[in-house]
Amino acid sequence: MNDNAIVLTARDISRAFPGVQALAGVELTLRAGEVHALMGQNGAGKSTLIKVLTGLYAPDTGSIELLGQAVTPRSPLHAQELGISAVHQESHLLPNLSVAENICAGRYPHRPWLRGGGIDWRETHRRARELLAGLGIDLDVTQLAGGLPAALQQLATVARAVSTDARVLILDEPTSSLDADEVKALFALIRRLRDKGVAILFVTHFLDQVYEICDRITVLRNGRFVGEYPCARLDTHGLIAAMVGRELVSAERPAAHEVAASGSTPAVLAAKNIARRGQLKPMDIELRAGEVLGLAGLLGSGRTELARLLFALDARDSGDITVDGKPAKLEQPADALRLGLGFCPEDRKESGIVAELSVRENIVLALQARMGLGSFLKPAEQRALAEKLVAALGVKTASIETPIAQLSGGNQQKAIIARWLATHPRVLILDEPTRGIDIAAKQELMNEVLELANGGTAVLFISAEIEEVVRLSDRIMVLRDRAKAGELPRGADEDAVFSMIASHS
Amino acid sequence: MNRRLLPLAVTMLLFVGMAVFGAIRYDGFLSPQVFLNLLIDNAFLCVVAVGMTFVILSGGIDLSVGAVIALTTMISAALLNAGWNPFAAMAVVLLFGALFGAAQGFLIQRFALAPFIVTLAGMFLARGCCYLISTESIPINDATYASIAQARIPVGLDASLTVGALIALLVVAAGMRIAHATEFGRTVYAIGGGESSARLMGLPVSTTKIGVYLLSGLCAALGGVVMTFYMLSGYSLHAVGLELDAIAAVVIGGTLLAGGVGYVAGTLFGVLILGIIQTLIAFDGTLSSWWTRIVVGALLLLFCLLQRLFEGRTRRTA
Amino acid sequence: MNRAQRLARHALFWPATTLALLLLVCALFNPSFLGIAWQNGHLYGNLVDILNRAAPLMIVSMGMTLVIAVRGLDISVGAVVAIAATVAALMIGGSFSASGDVASRFPLWIALVTALGVAAACGMWNGLLVVKAGMQPIVATLILMVAGRGIAQLLTGGQIITVYYAPFYALGNGFLLGIPVALWIAAALWGLLHLVLSRSALGLFIRAIGGNPEAARVAGVRSSAITLCVYTFCGLAAGVAGLIISSNVKSADANNAGQLLELDAILAVTLGGTALTGGRFTLAGTVIGALIIQTLTSMIYSLGVPPEVNLVVKAALVFAVMLLQSAEFRALVMRPVRNPRAGAA
Q1: Window 89-118 of B, Cβ < 8 Å to A
Q2: Do A446 and A468 touch, CB atoms closer than 8 A?
Q3: Do residues A329 and A488 lie in contact, with contact meaning Cβ atoms separated by under 8 Å?
């Protein structure tokens, strides 16, 4: 592998926040004409490192050199002027401005003083069109960015990032909401930029994408630099080992799980023709007592949307829902709760925990909500319930009165599951319960899921990790492009799932 | 392009509709002077509303403008009666308004405080300072002010504008230019579209946020100067509730309260609509002037509901 | 953490201390300030006065506390005060009679209940706009603030309606067992709220809705219904305050009744320690906040300072409390305290 010229070197970067050392002595070397992957678990420090490189945070120690010159980016604008451009995970186009404006914002061409000195809109549109054409993107630059589909918005965001003659382009999880075709288009763009000599830093959690487009990988773990490896010399297994820190024991068979023969038990919850315009095409789903139904599919296939419709978080446009064979009124989450459903959302910070409340209050919330204002869980009862569940699930917390915000992600997730366990649900929907949790906690959670099913609860288990879904489920429902691709019985392997997704297209 | 101009078109249609209604129902409604009076009587509101438009476009709100107008009239009256040169007095109050607004903007931006509470406290402060200067009305006897107040600029055959109305038109024109042809203006729209995204794009969000409140304070002070021409007095109870009228004018003019969408031209029509409501009620003769408040409230409700509908539909298709 | 530190961390520490300090300053300037006597069959003194005058503000602020706790706001309470006062005055009516014997148009209790009903309906209107139409609270309540006072003025024709029916005066001027009736009403309301909040999950639900509305909804809390009730209660509270205020001045003044009351209420809630961002709230803190405001007014008056200073002082207080509640400000101020050597580095 030829060694391209080094464009950026970051050495010994450290950054602490109150209570946590986000980065400690991290190194990074980016070369021109190369795509460099930055990998690590959640909390490894990837986002912090990017924010340091783009001037959003100042490092406590360390230095950055760009083309041999020491630089200290003071702000995103300054970083851009230096030649470091980024597309952050949370950055979006401004939906109320046109595409051309989004691309040229902050750098508008002006009319000469004699002709008024205002923004030259014609030139603005021309520049935007030229830039997009040079990158192989065909768009109407005068339309509002908000009207573009997500993938085109992503491409336009990348276009803006490189419009500043960037020498370094940082892409933080650019493919999270793109489907396979859209990812192809983005990768074509990335390759074009790479061939122009730009040094690209690519952050993703999709392992296959790393090997598809990247030349080198830097791995971070717990804020520390683990190593830099050429892709050709590090296989998937080695990469995961570097990220996780120990040899991954090959998947253990989870605790023995009894399941009644499919079809003999009536469905606890069944939905026929459930759909919502723009989010989910009509489909049928059945959840049976004591069974784990896995929901598999790529990002954007509609798994979370289906879960939200089942729990009535979003209003469905069509669909008959029956509980134990009888039609059920299911229009808001309170109805779902009353019918014995429970839902652990994907984003626990946004829709799961109430940060200010204590662990106890978070745990008793759903049960109390179901009991309504008429009856009241006395403080002593609340404490007993919370203590019991905290012990059963192994939630690590100083006390049940601790504000839940102080717990780690994994323990917060356990607390949310405890919340639903307290209601003795007949159906429990788990949307990405293991996301952002360390391996040990993941194992405990999955065992808990199986115990639930053993106890007679119907479980709907959603995970982006198809391997997890395959391991845990008694039956697998596969989604593709917001429609049902099919169902697979227990024992199906990942390849079967992949084939089902692929063949349906 | 057309969909963006829809709210503005609705506002203009409403204005035309009301004018036609008035022309049919009352004699003399369509006389040029009646129309120019819409602007003359509401010139100070127009100036303030232009400043308010920028604040709302950025996603904020400014509840202090009425109080700043009153304070401006008080300071002007006090300075003039102490013998100051009238133009020097005007310069001082304009500078004061700008600084007052900038201070509020600084607090909002630097300490991440909610705009409504900062400007609410600012309103308290400004009104309080008014009372400190005097609780009584202070008449202005300066000759220059009096002559400006009486000056009339002929427009067409037998209609005329006041200096205040002319200032209002100039401010609207300046506002339109700032909004559409300057980086500052476009950054205001960007902040309204998504502050964190704008920041990540490297736009000068912090300085622009302060600038928006500075502009609003400046417009409030200028509105106060115009009111001084109109009333020829300084009084702590001037412009009570004016901020609500300004917000109503901006919303009825088609600017989304959530920010990011709207036109300064729309605000002009919003002000004219408020004026025409008052004129219609005055022409009717039987309705008491309280009806103005009720109709304004109802219009505000209607436009807010329409905005919610508009937002709901665009969110579904995006 | 020793006892003193634990005391200082208590939520009510700062509001209570502020109030105590203010009372102390008053007492320093006027030694008889803190004195309470028994005169004319009731308690008498500056403190009693403060409590009495603060009662309407306490009541409105309690309603406002719950609204702010669910991340809402109600700036129409002043207008609702005017409306309630107007409805009651019109229904009681009556005219001046030399013999002093006046009957009311409707039985007193019907007039009062109607006024309260109208006030609650106003609150419900605000709640519907926020919950069903999804409008921002400040905008939704702005509409009633603008139009509501207009309606009240329309009903009274802009005139002040004097009420001649004596039993009505008891609300704002009467005494029961030596203590002002208005204070009894405020205490009863506080007691009722306290009972409901401690004997039911309402407090938990409100804190969940204000802390994270989406999470509360996912957990099955009936957010819409509870928010609607909170706004309705706020309107009702404003109605009660309106009745007391108009009873106190024996008239309904649609122009001025409740003017700037919403600002005082928000200030009281903020001073009491409830965050404007919603979630945790404290009714006791709000009551203390209302007392602080009233004590301030009394202090300014008794110090001989012109009452115009009142607004400026309130403004300064709001700025101070806002800044103290801001994490950025605290970080700025605390940094030199925590790292005194930072400057040397």
Answers
A1: none
A2: yes
A3: no
Helices then strands, counting H and E runs in chain A, come out as: 17, 20
Q: Which residues of C touch B112 (CB under 8 A)?
A: 326-328
Say which CATH class A251-340+425-505 falls into.
Answer: alpha beta
pLDDT value of residue B49: 97
Residue type, A248: L
B158: containing domain: 2-312
Q: CATH top-level class for A6-93+148-244?
A: alpha beta
A355-391: burial string, b at 16+ Cβ within 10 Å, e else: bbbbbbbbbbbbbbbbeebeebbeeeebeebbeebbe
User: Is B218 a member of any domain?
Assistant: yes
Domains of chain C with bracketed CATH? 40-329 (1.10.3470)
Nearest to A333 among C199, C207, C220 (CB): C220
Domains A6-93+148-244 and A251-340+425-505 share a fold: yes
| Cβ contact, residue pair A373, C202, below 8 Å | yes
Q: Where are the domains of chain A?
A: 6-93+148-244, 251-340+425-505, 352-424
- With respect to residue B317, please indicate whether it lies within any of the assigned structural domains: no
- Which residues in chain A are closer than 8 Å to C208, comparing Cβ atoms? 354, 357, 361, 365
Q: Do B296 and C158 touch (CB under 8 A)?
A: no
C331 close to B (CB below 8 A): no
Mean of all residue pLDDT scores within chain B = 89
- ipTM attached to this prediction: 0.85
- Residue B222 C-alpha, separation from nearest chain C C-alpha, in angstroms: 23
The token duo for C2 is: 């020793």
Is the pLDDT at A137 greater than 70? The verdict is yes
Nearest to A95 among B1, B177, B193 (CB): B193
Closest CA to A26 of A3, A50, A7, A56: A50
Buried b (16+ CB within 10 A) or exposed e, A190-225: beebbeeebbbbbbbbeeebbbebbbbbbbbbebbb
Written as six digits, the tokens of A283 are 């489909």
pTM for the predicted model, two decimal places? 0.82
The count of structural domains within chain B is: 1
List of chain B residues whose C-beta atoms are within 8 Å of the C-beta of residue C300: none
